[in-house]
Amino acid sequence: MRAKPQPANAEWGEHSQWIWRGQSCHWRVLGDPGHPPLLLVHGFGAACGHWRRNAAALAAAGWRVYGIDLIGFGASSQPALRLDNRLWARQLQAFLAEVVGAPAVLVGHSLGGLVALSCAVFFPAWVRAVVAAPLPDPTLLTAPQARPPRRPPWRRRLKRWLVIGLCRLLPLELLVPLLAHSPLLDLGIQSAYATPVIGDQELHRLIARPARRPGAVRALRAMSIAMALRPHGATAPALLRRLQRPMLLLWGQRDQLVPARLAAQVLSQRPGLPLEVLEHCGHCPHDEAPEHFNRTLLGWLSRLPAAEPVLEAGR
Known about the structure:
By secondary structure, the protein is of the alpha/beta class.
């Protein structure tokens, strides 16, 4: 399937659906089929349309640009599965194997950065390099330097019961529709940006549409439980220590949701990791300062080692 050049907007690329483990996954592609693949992975509450100001520029620079909606988000299925970064990493690996057919560079925004990192650690043969813009994980705030002692079974069961109980008590059936249909959504979106975005109707629709779907509450509750109960090996500190692929960190200097000072915690787990702090940007530097973001990203990508032969990924 050959992608046609399109304007820089949320509908970029040619769209398609792919079925994985009985779930429908929305994806899109832009760029010459002969160019090396690059997969864009969106953040929490967003979809691949959030790369509206990046995909065309990356394709023009010589990349075959793919975007995918993670299970539970965008136009993909919203099931009550164990939705955490391990499942999404498996989704990306299967997409690379079945649709892309070659290892790719993974570029993730926020939650997408954690998913991209997870995929690179669990399935390194399918990942050339990782870019996280930024890398969020609450465990970075209190991360030990080594694996914590294993908790006794009764404590693990108690934690599981508490997490599931609290998540089921949350009135998400009231809160999610209220947020999705009220001006509160615009305020929530604005908190992720350092520049004014209230009134950006395309951005509003991109976030609001998935939140108004019937399965949104079910998926959000399942996601909240699964992410809270992840094992240590699926947390950012453990993943960073195991990473064997090149990785770039991009951070907005004025990020209020995942402050730039958290980058120091990432670097404590992975010293020497390249970090670029983008001035005057909030939590969404790729959408706020796309020219600066694209230029920084492409500069780093130009220095990557050559891609390994495709056959090695399938071994």
